[in-house]
């Protein structure tokens, strides 16, 4: 409890997120949303922003991915012991679910910065002895189960989270909802403020990460009424969250004075999706120190002291000798290739142009796009050798995402004699760190406009890895053709059918590999090193979570 008292001085910003990625050993994240939340917290600690974070403990993690020889994904629980990393607090609160009192306890993890700052993270846990077996399981699986399970989790996170902060003595001046999963905190704030939406809106900030209608959580009111049996509460949800179905994002929009998307493009798309709402833009960033390889950290420390807390100093990358920059990249690449060979025995080498693709395996990410024409890939490989590294998990209920993994495995077999391709099992933060620093090209092929932001390419840029991406999400802001990397396909404003866009993108991807990227990598190394410099000096210096958090402080938290 002494640790807690030290972080209770003054008013806090309460940052609510269903998932938070802190390390591979704490498997409370599924993908980009959770990793972004972790980076947000780390930057808040570095910058001494008075933040407290609230999430679920996810005792059995997201899942541990096992792949058989055909690429069939098998999910295993990833049980972990919170007591290894955090402290169980004495306070308990309860929420009503189906008219039962469900008790919630809390674990405290202090995210401490190298600069001396600290952000407390409260992990909510319903595995309490007084709860029945079903209720004890609510905080077991991140994004597990069905709609009923999800809504129970959102009740615990939103309503239970507000009550827990109050019980622990935190004084909160703003509640920041990272996506709509935590929007039920608005219901609790309305209850505490006499159902006065004006007061609640003054307290709330909402960041949306979803550019498509289908991505926003919606629940049938039959289910809502079954779990939240208070008629007055359900009437409030209908009033602010939609008449036909309870839309968590709409509820958050109606109860927040500040709303933002996570890139400029995404804020425009969100404004079209929710007409009449003012949706600002704060472009995402990544935590520079966390996602920079040890080899580049050492280099930056020597030539750009203070860079970790002032990433804008990376703009001075030209002051570092090219030979040392190339050596740092080479060492990071060697570490990745050694890890790949140790895991797979595929026999990749250090000299070959290495392309990386790692993210959630879901249809719109189009993980197999680069493999669409094996004969063309063989032709490209004959011009200059390439090797490809894939990684990523498909949600247990996403059949199309699982098929993508199987398709990659089929292509590995088709191309086995000519091109080395691997799929790394059980993608986590450790694998991500090695991949974003160790490949030469970071590939991103989403279907436009479904990529709200994406942040893996920002991590790659911190390590001088060059981006090759469809113009969507953050890359629209970071891209200068041939200077910071390359675009795949048409400009964002070009109106093409999905089929026309796909054909243009595939042609552009193969042509750029064949005519531009391979000749430069193998024959004009000085130009390639200039691209490495530009990735760091023109992308990493800006697309970091320190800049992002300063924007939140001046635009959202005041």
- The level-1 CATH class of the largest domain: Alpha Beta
Distance between the termini: 29 Å
Mean pLDDT: 96
In terms of quaternary structure, the protein is single chain
**Whole-number count of domains:** 2
Question: Strand count, sense and closure of the main sheet?
Answer: 9 strands, mixed
The CATH architecture of the largest domain would be: 3-Layer(aba) Sandwich
Number of helices: 21
Features:
558 residues; alpha/beta; Rossmann fold; 2 domains; nine-stranded mixed sheet; six-stranded parallel sheet; 21 helices; pyridoxal phosphate binding; EC 2.4.1.1; Glycogen/Maltodextrin_Phosph
Question: What does this protein look like?
Answer:
The protein is α/β, with parallel strands linked by helices and 558 residues long. The chain has two domains: 1-65 and 75-284 and 548-557, 3-Layer(aba) Sandwich (Rossmann fold), CATH 3.40.50.2000; 288-542, Glycogen Phosphorylase B (Rossmann fold), CATH 3.40.50. The protein is 42% helix and 19% strand. It is built from 21 helices and 19 strands. The strands form four sheets. The protein has a nine-stranded mixed β-sheet with strand order 5-6-7-2-1-8-9-12-13. A six-stranded parallel β-sheet has the order 16-15-14-17-18-19, sandwiched between helices. Strand 14 (353-358), helix 14 (374-383) and strand 15 (386-391) form a beta-alpha-beta unit. Helix 12 (294-303) packs antiparallel against helix 13 (322-344), helix 13 (322-344) packs across helix 16 and helix 17 (456-462) crosses helix 20. The protein is globular. It comes from Methanosarcina barkeri MS. Its EC number is 2.4.1.1. Pfam families: Phosphorylase (PF00343). Keywords: Glycosyltransferase, Transferase. This is Glycogen phosphorylase.
